[in-house]
Design brief:
Layout (H helix, E strand, L loop, with lengths): L1 E6 L16 E6 L1 H11 L6 E11 L2 E10 L6 E7 L1 H13 L2 E11 L2 E10 L6 E6 L1 H10 L4 E11 L2 E10 L6 E7 L1 H11 L4 E9 L10 E8 L8 E7 H12 L3 E11 L2 E10 L5 H18 L3 E8 L2 E12 L4 E2 L6 E2 L4 H14 L28 H4 L3 H6 L23 H10 L14 H15 L3 H10 L11 E2 L33 H4 L1 E3 L1 H8 L14 H8 L20 E2 L8 E7 L2 E7 L4 E7 L7 H13 L14 H10 L27 H7 L12 E5 L2 E9 L5 E8 L6 E2 L6 E2 L9 E9 L6 E8 L1
Antiparallel strand pairs: 1-33, 2-4, 3-4, 5-7, 6-7, 8-10, 9-10, 11-13, 12-13, 14-16, 15-16, 17-18, 17-26, 18-19, 20-22, 21-22, 23-24, 24-25, 25-26, 27-28, 28-32, 29-30, 29-33, 31-32
Helix pairs in contact: 6-16, 7-11, 7-12
């Protein structure tokens, strides 16, 4: 991730890369939590203001859902929560006299008594008209009577016991915007209404409520929509009456393709809390490409009988698209979101390859060529019984990871072959050594081996002293910036043992084997992990040898990871294209590195192209998406230079992430605020130093700093000096030049040098660069990159 500081052979203003608008969406808040966040989010550094706040009752407690969005004006905001009718009228009268004007009103029923939330601007306009507790006919009559002098600012529909009531506020104005209200729509009518209005109108309010009595078989749910012109965007998506969990899934899918939440209302349908929401584009892929991807995936799901698919796409290491489709669980109608984890089957082998190579790099006793079985070898006599055959004694770590250990089958590895052993590893490794001859000399014949990778996972345990899962999570995933809460885990066998945010797995007409007869934990090194596709891409970008993101392995270890085994396959696999748990399409001229996975209830794919387009998809049935069809879409995006300049991963380098965590709260590090607050390009203190520069230079991102750069003319050169903080990890700084501020390139002559001979602040080093002033290129910039 890059952040830029521009110079015109002298310093000039900082440029920002992202045009995305910030937002924050929160649900389940108490009144104190809302009030606290209203003050925090409205400050100058965040610059977001409350747009909607809705109340609802959950488990007997009043809670609030709130949306903060980009500030369109300089007016202050004020929020009232949980007001009774009398309290709201009293407060509103006082606020009107002080110049506050209401622009949002929400009503909800708490124990048969209506309560109200309201948001005000300090705008000093003409006094407003507020009416509460109207029936539909009373409301519409009042609205008609104000037609010439006032226009409807907002309204809400709410329940008062068994009555449906209306609250509304009108603005006085001779110049009235176009307002249209669609009252009492059914769900089907709402869909039609949205489709008909989308090209010209913008959705201002979508108020959901339930009727007290309806004919048998008819839905109680109704919706009243306030529309306004002109439309800010003719592209938006609306979904009403989602369960809270399904809202979270949908919200992750929408923000995962570069959209943002533009409307949020949580309300009670009986005892159930449901959500209405709207999303608008916010810097992601063009909608035409999103539509093509959506169609491709949904067609594949229908053809393959797949309940859910999750797809993530990265461009040159940056996550630019992530979306899940379908149902995570068909029995509960749980919608799939980007935070759902899927079994990735044999993509686990790529993870194991990285884990083994990393563990070996941390010590000097053992290496890839170390033999594993027998006295004096890595495992010694931990498995099987002596004496070991010559071939058994000659199996190396490299053989395990290259599928060339020499066994002709996986023995009793799979759970249904020997259920009494459960998730234990030692019994089936012992059985293999005692009952299966190593028929081929290790390293001479390739045969795809789940067993070999399960044994390789024990190499990690033997060297590190940790479990394979613990070591891999702490030493591989954590340094890649992957969430410890929703990051990859070793899965369990039964549906009852599902992990947090794990999908369910399903057979198909052609693949009828029960997915829950397989015990992933037993086969941990070969097929065990559950993961989100974006997390697989975050790992891949840190073991690919590309300098955009700092690798967690040294260059020689990355080379080892991708170096192929030598023998040809005896079972249909081209081992000349396999590395240590990673394979390529063509070793002589590879287009990608990665791995696929397939077993009952699961298909998965990981394609890593360091300098181009990488992607990963997972499915909860044994069918999948066409990689070639995906590549066609991605190639079209590349040909048209249409990749967006965003990174949806929400993570950069672990050291930078830790620095950001020290300076910004967890709520502030919400994805929607990244571009204005804590991301490398953000400049929350508005001192023209992006966070990446503040991190590199050792400055405080929340406090405005004077320019740390000093300039002096030295002969025919411009000398620029500054101090950088020592020990900064994951950040680089270089100098680039341009003739016209559109195309930038690295300088051929100037070099940034450390001036250790000069006095500096303790823990800092003076750096400088000499820029020839006779260059044809007139502009220079410092490029700060977090990788």
């Amino acid at each position: 991730m890059k952040a830029l500081l521009l110079l015109l052979i002298a310093l000039s203003p900082l440029g920002k890369l992202s045009a995305r608008e910030p937002w924050i969406t929160l649900t389940g808040l108490t009144e104190d939590q809302v009030n606290s966040r209203v003050g925090t989010f409205s400050n100058r550094q965040l610059g977001v203001v409350p747009e909607q706040i809705s109340g609802y009752v959950e488990s007997g407690n009043v809670r609030f859902a709130a949306l903060w969005g980009p500030r369109p004006d300089s007016f202050s905001r004020r929020v009232l929560l949980g007001m009774t009718e009398a309290q709201l009228i009293s407060n509103n009268n006082q606020l009107q006299q002080l110049g506050w004007r209401m622009y949002w009103i929400n009503g909800y029923d708490n124990g048969g008594t209506p309560h109200f939330n309201a948001i005000y601007r300090l705008s000093n306009g003409a006094a407003q008209v507020l009416r509460l507790g109207d029936s539909l006919s009373q409301h519409q009559s009042a609205d008609s009577a104000m037609d010439d002098t006032h226009y409807l600012e907002n309204l809400c529909v709410y329940r008062e016991g068994n009555l449906v009531k209306y609250a509304a506020v009108w603005n006085q104005s001779a110049f009235q915007p176009q307002i249209s209200v669609s009252y009492g729509l059914t769900g089907e009518e709402l869909s039609t209404n949205v489709a008909n209005r989308q090209s010209e109108w913008r959705l201002h309010n979508l108020c959901g409520y339930s009727l007290p009595l309806v004919p048998i078989g008819e839905s109680r749910l109704r919706y009243t929509v306030v529309w306004k012109k002109p439309a800010r965007s003719t592209i938006f998506g609306v979904i009403a009456a989602m369960t809270k969990d399904n809202f979270f899934a949908t919200d992750s899918n929408q923000t995962g393709v570069g959209w943002r939440t533009a409307f949020l209302q949580a309300w009670n349908n009986g005892d159930e809390v449901v959500v209405n929401a709207q999303w608008v584009p916010n810097g992601g892929l063009k909608q035409s490409y999103i539509n093509r991807i959506d169609t491709l995936v949904r067609d594949a799901m229908e053809d393959g009988e797949i309940p859910a698919v999750s797809l993530a796409v990265a461009r040159q290491g940056r996550i630019v698209f992530k979306r899940a489709y379908g149902l995570a669980d068909t029995a509960t109608n749980e919608w799939a979101g980007t935070d759902h984890r899927f079994r990735v089957a044999s993509v686990s082998k790529a993870i194991t390859g990285v884990s083994v190579v990393h563990a070996l790099a941390g010590q000097t006793t053992w290496n890839l060529n170390s033999r594993v079985f027998g006295s004096g070898n890595l495992f010694g006599t931990d498995y099987g019984t002596a004496p070991y055959s010559t071939n058994e004694s000659n199996i190396t770590v490299r053989n395990l990871l290259h599928h060339t250990a020499g066994w002709s089958d996986d023995g009793l590895l799979w759970y249904h072959d020997e259920p009494a052993w459960g998730s234990q590893h030692k019994p089936f490794i012992d059985w293999q050594l005692q009952n299966r001859i190593v028929a081929n000399t290790p390293g001479t014949v390739g045969r795809y081996s789940n067993l070999g990778f399960t044994i390789a996972a024990r190499v990690v345990e033997k060297i590190s002293g940790d479990s394979y899962e613990t070591y891999t999570r702490n030493e591989i995933f954590d340094p890649c910036g992957i969430s410890p809460i929703l990051g990859p885990l070793v899965g369990e066998r039964t549906k009852a043992q599902k992990k947090l945010m794990e999908v369910s797995y399903y057979p198909t007409t052609s693949q009828t084997f029960d997915p829950y007869l397989i015990d992933p934990r037993r086969m941990d090194g070969s097929t065990a992990w559950i993961a989100r596709p974006a997390d697989l891409l975050l790992m891949a970008r840190r073991v690919d040898g590309d300098t955009r993101f700092q690798d967690i392995l040294s260059a020689d270890r990355v080379t080892a990871l991708h170096t192929r085994g030598s023998p040809n396959s005896s079972s249909g696999y081209g081992w000349e294209t396999h590395g240590l748990g990673w394979y390529t399409d063509n070793y002589a001229d590879p287009d990608y590195w990665g791995h696929n996975g397939s077993m009952a209830g699961t298909r998965a794919e990981l394609i890593s192209r360091p300098r181009a387009t990488s992607y990963s998809w997972v499915a909860n049935a044994r069918a999948g998406v066409s990689n070639s069809a995906l590549d066609t879409i991605f190639n079209d995006i590349t040909a048209n230079s249409d990749w967006p300049d965003i990174d949806l991963s929400g993570t950069y380098h672990p050291a930078y992430n830790a620095w950001a965590a020290d300076h910004f709260t967890g709520v502030e590090r919400n994805d929607g605020l990244e571009m204005v607050l804590w991301g490398p390009d953000a400049d929350p203190d508005d001192d023209r130093l992006p966070n990446a520069a503040e991190y590199f230079l050792g400055l405080d991102p929340r406090v405005g700093n004077r320019s740390p750069f000093s300039t002096t003319v030295v002969g025919s050169n411009l000398r620029i000096r500054w101090q950088k903080k020592n020990g900064i990890a994951g950040a680089t700084m270089d100098l680039q030049s341009s003739t016209g501020l559109n195309v930038w390139s690295g300088f051929n002559q100037p070099e940034i040098v450390d001036r250790t001979d000069l006095l500096s602040q303790v823990g800092y080093t003076v750096q400088e660069v000499l820029i020839p002033m006779n260059l044809p290129k007139r502009f220079a910039r410092f490029n700060f990159e977090i990788r």
